[in-house]
Amino acid sequence: MTRVDIALGPLTYNWPADKRRAFYEDIAKQPVFDMVYMGETICAKRSAIVGEAMADSVLALEAAGRTVVYSTLSLAITDPERQAITDVAADRDLLVEGNDAGALRACAGRPHHVGPHVNVYNEGTLDVLAARGATSICLPWELERASIERLAARARHHGMVAEVEVFGKAPLAISARCHHARAYGLAKDGCQYVCGKDLEGMPVDTLDGEAFLTLNGLQTQADAVTLLVSEIASLVEAGVGRLRLSPLNMDMGAVAGIYRALLDGALEADVAQERLITLLGDRAVANGFYYGIEGSSFAA
Known about the structure:
Blueprint: E1 5-8, H1 17-28, E2 35-38, H2 47-63, E3 67-71, H3 79-90, E4 96-98, H4 101-107, E5 112-114, H5 123-131, E6 134-138, H6 145-157, E7 161-174, H7 179-183, E8 202-205, E9 211-216, E10 219-227, H8 232-237, E11 242-245, H9 252-263, H10 269-280, E12 285-286
Parallel strand pairs: 1-2, 1-11, 2-3, 3-4, 4-5, 5-6, 6-7, 7-11, 10-12
Antiparallel strand pairs: 7-10, 8-9, 9-10
Helix pairs in contact: 1-2, 3-4, 5-6, 9-10
C-alpha cells in the first residue's frame, strides 16, 4: 500500500519570533512530519516582524531533511503583496503553494501545490489546475466525504497528490478589513499587531454566551477544532495521499505521532481519537463537514 504522508500546515497565528523559532526547532526534530508548509497566509504585515525567524526556521527544517513548501497569502490586496507572490513563484528552486487565483496564475507552467483556500469543488476545476502544473492539492475544509472521494480519485488520475486537512481550526472567511484589530478598538493600519495577544485567535461568543467563532487577524475561523480520526481509513481507501495538520498552541509532534501510529496500524481509531481529545484539553471538536451536516457538530 502506498504510504500516506503527514504534513504540517502553515502557522496561521501571529506568534512572536522567539516562539516561532522554538516551535519549528521542535518540529525539525520530529521525523513524523514529511512536509512542512511555511509562509504567511493571513496578513502580510506580520512578515515584517517575524520574517527573519521564519527564514531561520526554514533552514533548520531543510537541514533536518523536511520538505518545505512556501505558502502564499490567501488574500493579496496591495501591489507589494501581489509582487511578493510573483517573486516567490518565479523562484524555480522553491516549492510553492498557491492560495488564491493570482498565486495560481503566477505558478502556472511550473510544478506547484494548490492550497485549501482555493475553491476546488468539482473535477473540471481540478482538471484545469492539473493542466496548469499543479502536482498536489489540499482540498477545501468544508467538503463532505463523497466530494473528497471523487476529487481524490481525479487527482490520482492526473498523478497529483490529494491532501486533506484532518486537524485544526477551519477557515471560514477572510476579509480586507481586520475585525480582530477592531475588537481591540484599533484600525487595521494602526493595529499594533494586536492579534499577537491571542495565540489561537480571539474567541467570539454569541449574545447568549455560547462559543461561536474565532477571529484571527483578517481571517474568521471556526471555534471548534476539526478532528478527523475514525474517518482516516476511508480517506486512505479513497486515495488521499497526505494528511495535513494545522498548528495550534500545543505539542504538534505528539499530535502527528498519533496520526502516524494510526496510519501504520499501531493504534486503533478509537484509541487514537481518545488520545487526541485528551491532548486538545478543553477545546471543542468537530467533524460535521465530512458528513455533510453542520460543520460545528461532532459525529462520534
